[in-house]
């Protein structure tokens, strides 16, 4: 449309230029005096041409006014379209922001649930402390048992010595003492194995407990990271809405 | 450099080169070296009181007779590995004196419980430093609280399954320390800890950290 209007404007300018040139070229003004010879063909022709040019100019002016009106109407229509599109876009954007905020709210709720789930690890932690305390108690009892076994070995040894001193009369007692020493030896071996197993249990229980505890912290840290990103996104969307 | 290998030396020439291909759930050689370096730096820095210098070295086995009856144990968990560090320590008068100097307190002011807490806290500081270093390469890591075990329990580290073990000897201080590092991979672990400054010191023949 602009190109078209530019062409029309050029045409008008051209017509005006012709008209000005004709005025300058003529020694007499366009308004021919009435006392000029009425039979002058040149004057008559000139008047006709002038009137024709003026009519054409008027026609062009009318056409230009029509085009102006049309282009104004087109502009109004285009502006209206753009405004409608912009309104629709803003509504859509607001909806997207609203949905995103809703999703973030849901995500925040889920994060809260996850934090609660991680608290389960704290419960396990408490139970593992019970296990470790139980292990320590078993260590103590096993040490008592080992001390008793050691005492039994000494008593059995003393009994053997006494049986030997009693000679023939102590022979039966000596057999019993020897049997007790043998039993004490087996009990001692068992106690040592039990002790070793308790140490092994300490290591496994502690390392497992610590792995759980450290794993829970790792998960908490990861959840907090997601939480942080969600909060930042929420703030950014909130700022956009404001 | 003394007869024993110094801890914290730069990764081998091979480890410095192309990325090592490892099977699933395995530690690469440079990852092992990196964990060892991180542990040795943390041990040396955390055990030396102000103005004292620690030397850290690898050893193949512990001495037959040891005064260290207890060990403070901590873990680091990742989605790709688990790490256990145990610092063997003495809960006797000399141990108390060292930890009191480390904490700049009078050992006379410490109850047995306060001393034990300080030992646990020292373990916490060591593994905390390791956790920070390891966290530069692995985004998801978490650390446990310390537990004090009988040293004999460490004989059963193998019960945790296959993994990389390294024994450390910390010397140059009023008392020596021994520590054991255990790392088991549950995924591919391959990284190179950037501790060039430390490595340069080690290459120069000593590993002294303040």
Most extensive contact: A-B, 22 and 26 residues
Shape of chain B: globular
The tally of helices of chain B reads 5
In terms of DSSP E residues, the strand content of chain A is under 5%
Return the string of H and E elements of chain B. Answer: HHEEEHHEEEEH
Q: Runs of chain A with pLDDT <50, length 5+?
A: none
Shape summary of chain A: rod-shaped
Helix content of chain A: over 70%
C-alpha end-to-end distance of chain B: 19 Å
Number of DSSP strands of chain B?
Answer: 7
Helix and strand composition category of chain B: alpha+beta
Report the mean per-residue pLDDT of chain A as an integer.
84
Rg value of chain B? 17 Å
Feature tags:
heterodimer, A: 242 residues, mainly alpha, 3 helices, 91% helix, 0% strand, B: 210 residues, alpha+beta, 7-stranded antiparallel beta sheet, 5 helices, 7 strands, disordered N terminus, disordered C terminus
Please give a structural write-up:
The complex is a heterodimer of chains A (242) and B (210). Chain A has 242 residues and is mostly helical. In chain A, 8% of the residues are buried. Chain A is built from 3 helices and no strands. Mean pLDDT of chain B is 84; it is low at 1-23 and 199-210. Chain B is built from 5 helices and 7 strands, in the order H-H-E-E-E-H-H-E-E-E-E-H. In chain B, a hairpin with a 5-residue loop joins strand 6 (164-171) and strand 7 (177-185). Chain B is an alpha+beta fold and 210 residues long. In chain B, strands 1, 2, 3, 4, 5, 6 and 7 form a 7-stranded antiparallel sheet that branches. Chain B is globular and about 50 Å long. The A-B interface holds A 132, 139, 199-200, 202-204, 206-207, 209-211, 213-222 and B 73-79, 82, 84, 140-145, 147, 149-150, 152-157, 159-160.
